[in-house]
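Input (structure):
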C-alpha cells in the first residue's frame, strides 16, 4: 500500500519538473536571465532527488553498495550546483550588480565556492574517497553562512528581497528538519526501508513553499513593471502634449504676429500706391499680401493639426467645411458639403492623419479653381466602422492628358496627394470625365 508520504514525493517531483518547464518557457519568451537560472536550479533539484532517493524511484536496495555508489557519484555535486544557480538567480532577480556592489561581489564569491565544491565532490566520489565526516562538518559551517546571506539581504533592503529572504529562511528550516529527521530515523527506526525517502519530505515541503513565494514575487514584479511602463508612457504622452502646446503658442505669438504685420503693411502700401498711380507697386503689394495670407493659412493648419483637442473626426470635417466655404466664397464655384451630424461625435483621429487629409483636400480645391473650369464643387465625408471616407467632386472639364484624352494627367499635385496617402496608409482613387471625382479611404485606428 502506497502511503501519503510517497504520494507527496511524486507530487514534489512533478511540480519541480513542471515549474522547470514553465520558467524555461518564460526565459525563451522574454529573455530574462533570472528565469533561466531559476529553471536550471529546479532541474538540478529534481535530478538531485532522483539520485538521492534511488530506492524510491528506481527500486534498488540502499544496502546494494555498488548500485548506490553509481547514484552517489552525482548526488552531492548536484546539490552544490543547485546552490550555484539559485545564487545566480538571486543576483539577477534582485539586480544586485546595479543596486548593491557589496552583495553582488559576495554572491559571486558564493557561486565560485559552490562550483569548486561541486567539482571536488564529483572527483572524490569518482575515486571512491570517503569524505562523509568532512562533508557533514562543512555542511554545518555552511548554515551560518546561509544565515548571513539572509541577514545581508534584510539589512540592505533590496527591492523584492523579502520574498527571497522568507524563501531562504523556510528552506534553511526545512533542510535542518530533514537532517534532524534523518538522524532520528537512523537511531530509532534503522530497519525502515523507506527511511532514506522519508527523511527528505521536510526540505521538499520548504522548497515547494519557496517556489510559491517566488511565483508571487514574479507576478508582483511583472505587475510593478507594467505599472511603471504605463506611468512612463503617460508621462511621455503628457510631455508630448505640453510640447505641442508650446509650439502652438510660439507659432501663434511669434510667427502669426509677424505675418499679420507684413500683411497689414503690404495692404497699406498697395492702397497708398493706388492713390499715387503706381501700378507696379500695387501689384507688388498685392503679391506680398497674398503670400502673407497663404503663409498665415498654412501656419493655422499646422497649429490646428498639433492641437490635441482637434483629434476628432467631427472637428476635421467641420474644419474642411469651413475652409471650403471660405475658399470658394469669392469664386464662380458653388460649394456644398454633406450633413456632418452622423460622423461619430468624438471618434478620434490622429493629428498626423488630419493634417495629411486636409492638405489633400486643400490641393483638390485648388485644382478645381485653377484647372477644372467647374461651376459646382462638393465634399462628402462619412465614417464607416473605423474607416473614414472623403469624396471631392466637381462638374468641370476633368484632368485628362491632351495627347491621350482617356488618361488622367498626373501632375505634381496629384503625385503629392498619393504620397500623403501612402504616409498614412490610405487609398485614393481618381475618376475623370464629366468632371472629376476624388475618393479617399483611410483607417482611423
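Output (sequence):
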Amino acid at each position: 500500500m502506497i502511503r501519503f508520504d510517497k504520494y507527496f514525493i511524486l507530487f514534489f517531483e512533478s511540480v519541480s519538473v513542471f515549474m522547470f518547464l514553465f520558467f524555461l518557457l518564460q526565459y525563451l519568451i522574454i529573455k530574462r536571465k533570472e528565469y533561466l537560472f531559476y529553471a536550471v536550479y529546479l532541474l538540478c533539484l529534481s535530478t538531485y532527488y532522483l539520485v538521492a532517493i534511488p530506492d524510491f524511484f528506481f527500486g534498488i536496495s540502499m544496502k546494494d553498495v555498488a548500485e548506490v555508489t553509481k547514484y552517489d557519484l552525482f548526488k552531492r555535486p548536484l546539490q552544490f550546483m543547485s546552490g550555484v544557480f539559485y545564487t545566480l538567480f538571486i543576483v539577477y532577480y534582485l539586480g544586485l550588480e546595479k543596486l548593491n556592489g557589496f552583495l553582488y561581489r559576495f554572491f559571486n564569491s558564493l557561486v565560485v565556492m559552490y562550483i569548486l565544491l561541486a567539482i571536488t565532490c564529483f572527483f572524490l566520489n569518482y575515486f571512491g574517497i570517503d569524505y562523509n565526516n568532512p562533508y557533514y562538518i562543512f555542511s554545518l559551517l555552511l548554515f551560518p553562512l546561509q544565515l548571513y546571506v539572509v541577514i545581508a539581504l534584510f539589512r540592505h533592503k533590496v527591492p523584492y528581497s523579502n520574498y527571497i529572504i522568507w524563501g531562504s529562511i523556510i528552506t534553511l528550516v526545512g533542510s535542518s528538519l530533514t537532517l534532524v529527521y534523518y538522524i532520528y530515523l537512523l537511531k530509532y527506526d534503522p530497519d525502515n526501508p523507506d527511511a532514506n525517502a522519508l527523511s527528505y519530505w521536510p526540505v521538499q515541503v520548504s522548497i515547494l513553499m519557496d517556489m510559491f513565494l517566488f511565483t508571487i514575487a514574479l507576478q508582483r514584479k511583472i505587475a510593478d513593471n507594467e505599472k511603471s511602463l504605463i506611468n512612463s508612457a503617460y508621462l511621455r504622452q503628457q510631455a508630448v502634449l505640453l510640447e505641442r502646446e508650446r509650439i502652438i503658442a510660439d507659432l501663434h505669438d511669434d510667427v502669426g504676429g509677424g505675418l499679420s504685420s507684413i500683411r497689414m503693411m503690404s495692404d497699406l502700401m498697395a492702397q497708398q500706391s493706388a492713390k499715387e498711380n503706381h501700378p507696379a507697386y500695387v501689384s507688388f503689394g498685392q503679391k506680398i499680401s497674398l503670400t502673407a495670407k497663404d503663409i498665415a493659412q498654412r501656419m493655422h493648419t499646422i497649429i490646428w493639426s498639433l492641437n490635441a483637442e482637434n483629434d476628432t473626426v467631427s472637428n476635421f470635417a467641420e474644419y474642411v467645411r469651413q475652409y471650403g466655404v471660405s475658399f470658394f466664397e469669392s469664386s464662380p464655384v458653388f460649394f456644398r458639403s454633406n450633413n456632418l451630424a452622423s460622423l461619430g461625435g468624438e471618434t478620434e483621429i490622429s493629428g498626423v492623419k488630419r493634417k495629411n487629409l486636409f492638405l489633400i483636400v486643400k490641393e483638390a480645391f485648388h485644382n478645381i479653381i485653377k484647372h477644372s473650369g467647374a461651376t459646382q464643387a462638393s465634399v462628402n465625408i462619412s465614417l464607416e466602422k473605423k474607416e473614414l471616407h472623403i469624396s471631392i467632386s466637381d462638374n468641370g472639364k476633368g484632368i485628362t492628358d491632351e495627347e491621350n484624352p482617356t488618361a488622367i494627367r498626373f501632375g505634381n499635385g496629384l503625385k503629392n496627394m498619393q504620397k500623403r496617402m501612402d504616409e498614412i496608409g490610405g487609398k485614393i482613387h481618381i475618376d475623370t470625365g464629366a468632371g472629376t471625382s476624388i475618393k479617399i479611404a483611410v483607417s482611423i485606428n
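Notes: The chain has two domains: 4-199, 311-445. DSSP finds 14 helices and five strands in the chain.
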